[in-house]
Design goal:
about 75% helix; single chain; about 140 residues; mainly alpha
Length: about 140
């Protein structure tokens, strides 16, 4: 009886592991098809940290398609901090469409501070870009 229980537990663990790997493999392939470079280990890590790697991959793909420069590590860090990367990407794409280059980190900080990025107008995006330039200049 104990042997049957042990086999059942091992079988469930193997199925759970295979499911996790399969989900991450699908996301990895989807990102690669969209021209995004991500690490499969990063996807597994996000899943284990109870984040939604599918949501983050979608945001990352949208950022790349919107000609916005951002790294996977920046997305991961922002998600772990409790931010909403989709709003940051949308604001960056809006700024980029207006010819304004705003660093991801500046908008991510604003997002974490509770600023409504969806409501930012052109003047506010320009101000955020200037803040980013000052921060880069001080380093």
């Amino acid at each position: 009886m104990e042997m049957l229980l042990l086999v059942a537990v091992l079988f469930i663990m193997v199925l759970a592991t295979m499911s996790l790997i399969a989900q991450c493999a699908i996301l990895y392939i989807r990102a690669m098809m969209a021209g995004c470079r991500i690490r499969p280990v990063g996807l597994i890590g996000m899943r284990l940290q109870r984040l939604s790697p599918g949501f983050v991959v979608d945001c990352f793909i949208r950022a790349r398609q919107g000609n916005v420069e951002v790294s996977w590590e920046q997305f991961e860090k922002h998600c772990l901090a409790g931010g909403q990367p989709d709003r940051v990407v949308d604001a960056m794409i809006r700024a980029n469409d207006q010819g304004i280059v705003v660093p991801f980190d500046v908008l991510a900080q604003a997002d974490l501070a509770g600023v409504d990025l969806d409501a930012m107008d052109t003047a506010q995006l320009r101000e955020a870009a200037e803040i980013g330039e000052r921060e880069e200049g001080s380093e």
